[in-house]
Amino acid sequence: MNPLYTSLGTTIFETMSARARATGAINLGQGFPDGRGPEDVLAEAARALVEDSNQYPPMLGIPALREAVAAHYSVHQGLDLTPAEVVVTSGATEALAAAILALVSPGDEVVMFQPLYDAYWPLIVRAGGVPKLVRLEPPEWRITAKALSAVASARTKLVIVNSPLNPTATMASDAELALLADFCVAHDAIAICDEVWEHVVFDGRTHRSLIGLPGMRERTVKIGSAGKIFSLTGWKVGWMCAAPRIAAVLAKAHQFLTFTTPPNLQAAAAYGLGKDVAYFEGMRAAFQRSRDRLAAGLTGLGYAVLPSAATYFLSIDLDRSGVGMGDIAFCEWLVEEAGVASIPVSAFYVEAPVTNVVRLCFAKADATLDEALERMRVRP
Ligand code: PMP
Ligand code: GLN
């Protein structure tokens, strides 16, 4: 079993960022943009810090942000959430922890998909849940009805869905969403939907949330992150949206995790969520250009690049690139010999890892991507 999951190991993101710092490598591992983020959102955070209260804000979040989240999802995703159904958290990471602690009791079975974002497994196991893993494979990384029914049981309590999916950069298709909705309804299960990448989608795609599907309004926790929406990953402002019956329980867990989130950052997120559609389109277009720049450069160097529909990431298929080593060995070689940090996708598997895929973050300035590509002219 992957050692990260047998004890509380260090996440691959921290491990590779530390290696990048130690070796002076360009860090295309951990996913964060190198830009400043929107200046007006930063200015609102600064204004609120100086002019507004810095004492404990309301436990559920400041009203302006809860209203802004509900209004934002009405405009951008056609959802009918109310502010009362929004609980503000300190990042999506806290939202995941709160949702899992609130909803998982010892012995409950939790369906998860590998590759899985690193926080899910440790939280589920420490809550006493029993992970039931569905393994996804490249290049499509698709969920099938057969794989889902193989993990179903009378104890199925939760399904954790991450779409767009980090690290594969794929989005759940309409057919997969329907499959997941039918599964949840049939097993009376709740879906925790990690949708932090909902705005970072490319080529004209639009994000669809499971909460909008028939039967799911009453059984979905929709999680979002201002860090991703505004390209400010250090901010750690997130939220969970759920029907009142579930939101009340989520709030109970949240109150003992962080209780509140810095009020000025909440105010700035509230302001930013109201930005016009052009902002979101511009942000997507800029990341899409960076994606295309890195993909074209890697292709030119003879690497086979898997499609990236969303997120800050694209992946190299090592087998099809003629690289005769596994992902961990390649990432080691890349950071030490070429001076570029990346992430081995096998780190996102608890067991039976896919070992021929390496994730790179393209959310960087052109000059940084070009320098990384220059360094990657050397081949293993
Ligand atoms: N879920 C996924 C799938 C992520 O990729 C990330 C971070 N990129 C998070 C959760 C954590 O989000 P936050 O920084 O808001 O805690
Ligand atoms: N979500 C970011 C990534 O996938 C990193 C988050 C973290 O460092 N925990 O790279």
UniProtKB/TrEMBL annotation:
It comes from the Bacteria. InterPro entries: Aminotransferase_I/II_large (IPR004839), Kynurenine-oxoglutarate_AT (IPR051326), PyrdxlP-dep_Trfase (IPR015424), PyrdxlP-dep_Trfase_major (IPR015421), PyrdxlP-dep_Trfase_small (IPR015422). GO terms for cellular component: cytoplasm. Its EC number is 2.6.1.1. One of its GO terms (molecular function) is kynurenine-oxoglutarate transaminase activity. SUPFAM superfamilies: PLP-dependent transferases (SSF53383). The keyword Transferase applies. It catalyses: L-aspartate + 2-oxoglutarate = oxaloacetate + L-glutamate. Residues 25-375 form the Aminotransferase class I/classII large domain. Its cofactor is pyridoxal 5'-phosphate. Keywords: Aminotransferase, Pyridoxal phosphate, Transferase. Homodimer. PANTHER family: FI04487P. Belongs to the class-I pyridoxal-phosphate-dependent aminotransferase family. This is aspartate transaminase. It comes from Sphingomonas alpina.
